[in-house]
TrEMBL record:
SUPFAM superfamilies: Adenine nucleotide alpha hydrolases-like (SSF52402)
InterPro entries: Rossmann-like_a/b/a_fold, Universal_stress_UspA, UspA
Family of this protein: Belongs to the universal stress protein A family.
Species in which this protein is naturally found: Streptantibioticus ferralitis
Protein name: Universal stress protein
Gene3D superfamilies for this protein: HUPs (3.40.50.620)
All residue ranges annotated as the UspA domain in the record: 18-155
């Protein structure tokens, strides 16, 4: 960056992401993405926002809404417990700033809302482990096509 005289000016604290959003769902792929994001957040002194998107019950499936909501809430609680345990095991408690958020809906919509609301500078997701995504497109591809944040896909 240059000032009005054409001289270089150093910008303190403006490089690197301030908020990193990572999608977690308990899968191996999402844990690898979370580990990568945690390392990046620690090194960059960024806030790590871990986001779990709770699937909404199908409208036409009467009676399944409450049990499904309870199950997804339990999954969210288990993810938070595993995150805390992993961070404590690594000794990162004092150096890693992190938050856990849940959003309801479909993964693309939930992560997009999270990234927008949290003003994410980067979004990190695990590579899809489902074979059908090669045909209809994965979450990562949809996030990249949205072109609103840099997206990193962790294999």
């Amino acid at each position: 960056m240059t000032d009005n005289k054409g001289e270089s000016v150093f910008e303190l604290g403006t490089d690197g992401p301030k908020v990193i959003v990572v999608g977690v769902d308990g899968s191996d792929s999402s844990w690898r993405a979370a580990a990568y994001a945690a390392g990046l957040a620690r090194r960059q002194r960024s806030l790590l926002a871990m986001v779990y998107v709770q699937p909404m019950a199908m409208v036409g499936s009467a009676g399944l809404g409450v049990p499904m909501a309870e199950a997804t809430s339990q999954i969210a609680e288990e993810i938070v417990a595993q995150v805390r345990e992993a961070i404590e095991r690594m000794g990162e408690v004092s150096t890693l700033r992190w938050e856990f958020h849940t959003f309801a809906g479909e993964p693309f919509t939930g992560l997009s809302q999270a990234a927008d609301q949290l003003r994410a500078d980067a979004v990190i997701v695990g590579a899809s482990e489902q074979a059908g995504h090669r045909i209809i497109g994965s979450l990562a591809v949809r996030l990249v096509k949205a072109a609103r944040w840099p997206v990193t896909v962790v294999p």
